[in-house]
Queue: 2 jobs
Job 1
Amino acid sequence: MMSNSRRLQVAVIGAGAAGLCAARHLLARQDVFCPPVLYEFTKRVGGTWVYEEQVGRDEDGLPVYSSMYRDLRTNIPKEVMAFPDFPFDKHLPSFVHHTEVRKYLNQYCDYFGIREHIKFHRLVDSVRPVFSESRQGGLTWDVTTSDATGKGHKTTNQFDAVMVCNGHFFDPYIPAITGLENFKGMLMHSHDYRVAEPFAGKSVVLLGAGLSGMDIMIELSEVASEVTLSHRHLPLSCPLPRGVHQAQGVKLINEDGELVFEDGDRAKPDVFMLCTGYNFTFPFLSKEEVGLQVREHCVTPLYKHLLHPAFPSLFLIGICRAVCPFPHFHCQIQFALSVMDGSFTLPTQKQMEEEMEADMQTQLQKGTALRHILKLDSEQWDYNDEMAQLGKFKPLPPFWKSLYEANKVFRAQDLLNYKNYIYQVFSDQEWTVMQKIAE
Ligand SMILES: Cc1cc2nc3c(=O)[nH]c(=O)nc-3n(C[C@H](O)[C@H](O)[C@H](O)COP(=O)(O)OP(=O)(O)OC[C@H]3O[C@@H](n4cnc5c(N)ncnc54)[C@H](O)[C@@H]3O)c2cc1C
């Protein structure tokens, strides 16, 4: 889609880690790209990492976006959580408090001169493809935004490409549990969990043993009268806090408000907390016009889990799950730029569709459920390397994989302690070089 005559205009939706990373790379390539326009619905940079004490609505009456809790520390060491070209402060411990990540993202934003390109409190309402003969490639995008606080007018601007960086930890996924409405205690989703104190003396059932479920279990075990972790992978091999029980998944809630587990056991807790993850939502993309489908946590059709084959200037950054997010964004975004600047030539639409279909069939034949197809896990490293090879940019150094994978093992073996580990992957001299690169 490279235009010979003029620079490309790119809209970026969201100023979380992915949106900032997109802007950082677009700004570095001003020979090809105009400075991007970032639309951010809130008034702050950092997305998920902007902790809000309140739940529901914020002080401006907007829905609270972040799912952070007060005492959260990262579950990935800062040495590999960082963008590869911008390390965290070397004096910080490996597993940092969420306030440090927000600080880090603000530093990244200012260091790369991104802030002036962000339009805060702008909600992207619609992103529509427009086919016109007058522009090279024929396809442009009308991006319509409104003032998030409801004041002011809608505006529509035209772009050559759109990078969707709207995150996917905002819209709680509520599983279809028979009789959920019968539950008489406090029913909540982990999106609204902030602090442990209000749960003192209460009995709690947590549904889901993902990263949030496990973290919240540890916090609540300090104060609650009883904590039960209900999940599908019984029993977990890692040591759990004293007094925490494990139970099978919740099959239904009976008319007396009792939780009935898969094996017939029952419980009537004070609190039932769903730690069941989040939905993908792209409310600004019309189903009829763009035809993106979200089924069972799988988003299709997306070539390389990234771009729509019929609209190869629409990029969805960061929809893969079970990845090391910031370095993954760093790779996806540079690949997207190589598609836009023409240094990587995409296969034809038909070839991309055939490849996607073949990949999907291989996964399904291997027994991967549709809802797990976007979980890359250890395959993320080959994926990132492929992005780098096709996009002709520097791959991640090998220690990224070794440290990330080692951390996964330590987390599984030593859940209660792994965040106290300190990694020393760089010598002081190497750190100085890294810090210099970021300067
Ligand atoms: C509880 C929790 C703990 C986590 N812990 C870790 C960790 O330890 N390490 C790690 O690496 N990752 C962690 N993550 C994952 C984290 O989400 C990613 O690291 C990363 O921050 C995601 O960035 P993002 O830019 O994709 O999305 P987000 O941070 O969600 O940012 C999206 C932005 O888009 C904006 N937006 C959305 N829709 C619109 C619209 N229509 N118009 C305008 N703006 C819009 C939002 O306001 C937001 O600012 C955690 C996530 C959660 C929820």
Job 2
Amino acid sequence: MIEVQEQQVEDILQDAIQRITTSGKDFQLVSITKKIQTTNPVHFFEAALRLNKERVFWTSAKESFTMTGVGNAFEMDANENRFSFIESAWEQLRGQAVIYNPYEVPGTGLVSLGGMDFDPEKKRTELWGDFPSIYFTVPEYLLTKFENECYLTVNIKITKEDHVIQLSNQIRNDERILLSLKELEKQPLEIVQQHDIAPDQWKQIVQKATEEISHDQVDKVVLAREVRLKLNRDVNRAAVIEKLIATQSNSYVFAFEQKNSCFIGASPERLVKIKNKELLSTCLAGTAPRGKTNEQDKKIANALMQDMKNRQEHDFVVQMIKQGVAKYCEQVYVPEVPIIYPLKNLQHLYTPVTGVLKQGHSIFDIVSQLHPTPALGGLPRTASMLFIRENELLDRGWYGAPVGWFDYNENGEFAVAIRSGLIQKDEASLFAGCGVVKDSQPEEEFEETRIKFAPMLSVLGGES
Ligand SMILES: C=C(O[C@H]1C=CC=C(C(=O)O)[C@@H]1O)C(=O)O
């Protein structure tokens, strides 16, 4: 293993500047990874405020794996053919980048993180104005923490005009700032106003969906709604991340900043994970609350396992994911019966799907094939998406869509961005939805969404 020493960084930069001058290319992306002392990824996130750069945060459900990205060394977005466009931009970058990364750890080196609109065909509102329809960034600084080891990757987009000493001083200075913070400032956050957007109208749409289902227009539709909050102060996003990590076990905690907005959440739902060609996807649909005692909790879990409505809702997701994955994978395995996936406020039906990615396929194929699963869209896909597009009162933006990352070694992971909200200064919009099938009751579905708001509400100063 050859580590890049401090003084070698300057040689690498010098080399890249020389190469760009002779090659005629516009820029050269250089990515350098080193191991650093164990540090707190949330403090790193907060410290980045002093650099005035956009930040991203990602931590993986159940694994000791966290990434904090600061600044944008390279950005990818697209208007049409969004998956293939991002994939080809990434392939191009991967081909030209100079990468110094002696570590085998997924999520170190050249990595890109981002997300996208749930439905690119839905009319956009001002709410999501800061967010592109699809966006992936290669951060300037990426802290990757895996099982207590920390790696710092610096990605630099070098142009002919750059100077080595200036660049290396800048990097040293930024790193010092990013690694300097030891704790977060505590500022009590309170919700001063909470407004459910059009609850009665939402229930009527649920009713309408059940009618369309009984007329065989569609089998399942997921309908979401919004709660709008006013807080007593501007939200400290690092503090929200810290609280989500502390309270929402079994979840991906993520945050993506764009201009004045931050999309943040703690989602239990994995869309896909690829590690060394091995695929893991999960089906998560069918919901019940947690019990107050162990005994009550078990009783509710048993009832959820036996409940035909929830089992059907879940099975729609399993069948679709199994079929979608089979197109691109060998050795697909799906257990016959779901298990219970417990969260702080809720429990879900959960079925893992495993397989091995066939040669020539990538995480992009899987994400574009699976999104939206019937856990967020419905079944059949086209009819349910049309129903949502035409009836739902909400601009979902990135809610319910894939968010995640991929690296230059073809590893990556995407979650479905639920249990989430969009934070803008001292305001927030929270989103939650539920699967509607033939026997759904609007009041019960409303109650289910109410509980799904709890993870975000509780970290913003509301009740847990
Ligand atoms: C749409 C959401 O949850 C989905 C994921 C798990 C269980 C669900 C359900 O039981 O309805 C939903 O399909 C949400 O939390 O906003």
